[in-house]
Design brief:
Shape of chain A: globular
Strand content of chain A: over 45%
Order of helices and strands of chain A: EEEEEEEEEEEE
Radius of gyration of chain A: 14 Å
Structural class of chain B: mainly beta
Structural class of chain A: mainly beta
Strand content of chain B: over 45%
Largest sheet of chain A: 6 strands, mixed
Distance between the termini of chain B: 36 Å
Number of helices of chain B: 0
Distance between the termini of chain A: 41 Å
Shape of chain B: globular
Number of strands of chain A: 12
Number of strands of chain B: 11
Oligomer: heterodimer
């Protein structure tokens, strides 16, 4: 069965530290990849997406992610986190492109200490 | 304003009492979907719809029903709710080719 795995369940960082959240998926075909963020008490918002082309994608708020096909990975990065980045982050994969079937990872809670 | 609207936002009810959570979008999206969010499990897809009168099961459809009679609405129906359906539910929509989904604000259901 297709699955998405986020290795870090809870990450605590100080402001200005660098961030990398891991995401691996199990599917060998064409995929669309997403990172969503959920701030406390709010709905999910799209951070960035990868459909094709340059494997390094840039999103909002200084986030970026790199698609490494050989590793089935789509890790999220930010060079310097801020207190306002405290949120839950979800990786999601559409492994059957154009069907709308989306599989989410378990989520990573990021806590940034001021 | 482009949005996905869910109602109610919060509901406490009892086992076996049928309930419906409504979802409406004003962006003319073909695609709509329902998810449940549980701690440690992320979001799991319940049902999705590619267009009017076209629905399909997601990963956790048991105990739920949906319908898509109009493009803008995609209600989630729990015919006989049980406590294991206590969860936070999100509705989402998108254009099929533009996959990133717009999410509603969520509905927190508690079934006693």
């Amino acid at each position: 069965a297709q699955s998405v795995s986020q290795h870090n369940h809870h990450v605590i960082l100080s402001e200005a530290a660098s961030l990398e959240l891991g995401c691996n998926y199990s599917y060998g075909g064409t995929v669309n990849l997403f990172w969503y963020v959920q701030y406390p008490g709010q709905h999910l918002q799209l951070l960035l997406k990868y459909f094709s082309g340059d494997p390094l994608v840039k999103g909002i708020k200084g986030f970026e992610a790199e698609f490494i096909k050989s590793k089935f990975s789509f890790n999220l990065r930010k060079p310097s986190v801020q207190w306002s980045d405290t949120a839950e982050y979800f990786c999601a994969v559409n492994a059957q492109v154009n069907t709308g079937k989306l599989i989410f990872g378990q989520g990573t809670t990021l806590q940034v200490k001021p | 304003e482009a949005q996905v609207t869910q109602n109610p936002r919060y509901l406490i009810t009892v086992t076996g009492k049928k309930l419906t959570v409504t979802c409406s979008q004003n962006m003319n999206h073909e695609y709509m979907s329902w998810y449940r969010q549980d701690p440690g499990l992320g979001l799991r897809q319940i049902y999705y719809s590619m267009n009017v009168e076209v629905t399909d099961k997601g990963d956790v459809p048991e105990g739920y029903k949906v319908s898509r009679k109009e493009k803008r609405n995609f209600p989630l129906i729990l015919e006989s709710p049980s406590p294991n359906q206590t969860s936070l539910y999100f509705c989402a929509s998108s254009f099929i080719r533009d996959q990133p989904q717009h999410f509603g604000d969520g509905t927190r259901l508690s079934i006693l």
